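Data availability excerpt. The first of two example chains:
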Amino acid sequence: MGFSEPNYSGHCAYRGLGFYPNGQPFAQRVNYIYGRGLRAGYVPVSPTKVYWFICYNSPSAGPKITDPSLLKKQAKELVSNWPAELLELIDISPDETISRTTLVDRWLWPGVTPQASRGKVVLVGDAWHPMTPNLGQGACCALEDAITLTRKLADSMKSGTPSIEEALRAYGEERWPRVFPLTIRANLVGSLLQWDNPLVCSARNNVVIPKLVRLGPMLEHTNFECEPLKA
């Protein structure tokens, strides 16, 4: 398809799923902790499970590590003096839920980046527009892609002269204005949250985050509605 490999953002993340067999103790909200070049968060996802992540700066992606015990050890070393509940979440996470990944993205520059489709081959989701998870929109955009693609194909098949190629092109043209700005915004938000300068971090924690997050402008991208599919 002619696309470049995704670009490394300079950040890596540990992730896991804490398991409380007798019920997790947290309120239904997202909890964030910010440090210098380091942040973490956790949120209940079921009555017994709590998702957590730790994101940290790294000049390179480093070697691929899959040993869960080593991943847990490294994650805990990063946040050894952080809240006890975060450390407990790491400890009680089943091995199969532990991972360490690099955060990457691909910016779909107009006129430079190939189209989403070529002939009857089309890309959706991360295959087309990988983005960092800082806005929580990667999987959402993949689902939006699927709905839009389905609608374009259905409309084409209902027309008198159906053309798969035209439907795929129309899908890419409709989705690009949505995914390109989100990819850039997610990258910039990640850079903001991963600052390591003490003075800049103080401004981030006391001014930027309260105004952007708590007042809502940062979350406007979540108010997106796909045109519904028709029977």
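And the second chain:
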Amino acid sequence: MMICRVVGSIVCSCRIDGLKHTVFRLVESESGLQQAATDTVGAKPGDWVFLTTGTAARFATGDYEVLTDLAVCGVIDQWPPASAPN
């Protein structure tokens, strides 16, 4: 798992059937790497979230047929922000 900050939403109206009606978020790591992640928990821009990758990401969506390899698993309510940029 990894921790990233949600920096935006991704709108994708034309997609393959395997993505169904999944919501996408743009997440950014502390090193600045930006990636698209599926989001079934309702994270908002500015939220710190933890994500899972690979096959575990498919399980995290609750629908094993969703084609994803990065999924938001939860919004972090409290986290020692000593290393987290504001």
